[in-house]
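DM from R.C. (forwarded with permission)

"hey, sorry to bug you on a friday — could you get me a structure for this? deadline for the figure draft is monday and I only need the backbone to look sensible"
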Amino acid sequence: MANSGGARNSFEGISQEVGAKLAERRNELGRSLRQVSTDAEVSTSHLSDIESGVCGVSLPVLLRIVRALDLTITELLPRIGGHHVRRGSITDVSEGVSEVLSHQNLDLDISFLHLEKGDVHEIENSARADVLIHVLSGSVVCDADGTEVPLTDGDTLDTEQVSHHQLSAGSRSRLLVAQGDPNR
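My reply, with the result:
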């Protein structure tokens, strides 16, 4: 019979990691064990054992706890299925200013644009990486290497092999622009 010690140690490590993340989130929210255990319908001592990694947790109980902590399972366990989830937010950006939302481990450069009517924004793409432009609000015309595409609220344009984009704002517009980085 195979040694199950490795599997047990792996399970204990996961239990400790999950517990630590739950405790960290609870503390971020400034909530007590009692408050969260009441919301999650588990005993305070059981939640304490889960947070300290002393015991494992069933999926139904874990789901109640993450809901009580305003989390999702993917935020708690970002490596499930090879996905990585990071929490973030977009602050209000000044007119005409682009704010980079990416981080060093992401294979995309993501920018938030706030354009006023008549503003023009250029995207140079000498590497010809994929570019995705999503209009959160407003309207723009995108000239993608000579092909004009009008975009308005909720529209998304995905381009491949385009070296130059010119966005001309027809109204006050807020956009997300994601550009692949072939060097990553």
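R.C.: lifesaver. The beta strands are 98-100, 108-115, 120-124, 131-137, 139-144, 147-152, 156-159, 164-169, 173-180.
me: no worries. Residues 15 and 56 are 6 Å apart (CA to CA).
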